[in-house]
Amino acid sequence: QVQLAESGGGLVQAGGSLRLSCAASGRTLSSYYMDWFRQAPGKEREFVARINRSGGSTYYADSVKGRFTISRDNAKNTVYLQMNSLKPEDTAVYYCAASSSYYSDYREGHYDYWGQGTQVTVSS
Questions:
Q1: pLDDT, tens digit, for every residue of 70-123?
Q2: From the centroid of its chain, how far is CA 58?
Q3: How far apart are CA 106 and CA 86, in angstroms?
Q4: Which helix (H) or strand (E) is 33 found in, with range?
Q5: How high is the mean pLDDT of the chain?
Q6: Across residues 32-48, what is the average pLDDT?
């Protein structure tokens, strides 16, 4: 069993930066592909970024490419999401999710564990 806990959310002005963390307990994260998702009010949860088990490969949604960076520190059992040049449309609850297998899509059923989420609010 893995417990995921996100932190680092908050209120920031447009153009600002935040760094989210997803800390795992219970088992090592190094066996999992790690993704970040977000859900804005009234919208479906959407994929944001993915990192493979070693951290050597990353993938981003077009909406965040060039502004967000996903990384991981397996020794610390933590995954990060550095968010720069934030926009009001980035406002959402951000979730991390762990998958023990690779899937080419982002259906929620593919993920073994989810965090509780952290709120990010970007003011204009």
A1: 999 999 999 999 999 999 999 999 999 999 999 988 898 899 999 999 999 999
A2: 12
A3: 23
A4: strand 33-39
A5: 96
A6: 97
φ, ψ at 91 (rounded to 5°)? -60, 125
**CA-closest candidate to residue 69, choices 81, 85, 61:** 81
- DSSP per-residue string spanning 45-89: -EEEEEE-SSS--EEE-TTTTTTEEEEEETTTTEEEEEE-S--GG
Q: Is 29 exposed, middle or buried (0-12, 13-18, 19+ CB in 10 A)?
A: buried
- The pLDDT of residue 104 is 87
Q: What is the identity of the amino acid at 76?
A: K
pLDDT value for 1? 87
What is the distance between the alpha carbons of residues 44 and 58, in angstroms, rounded to a whole number? 23
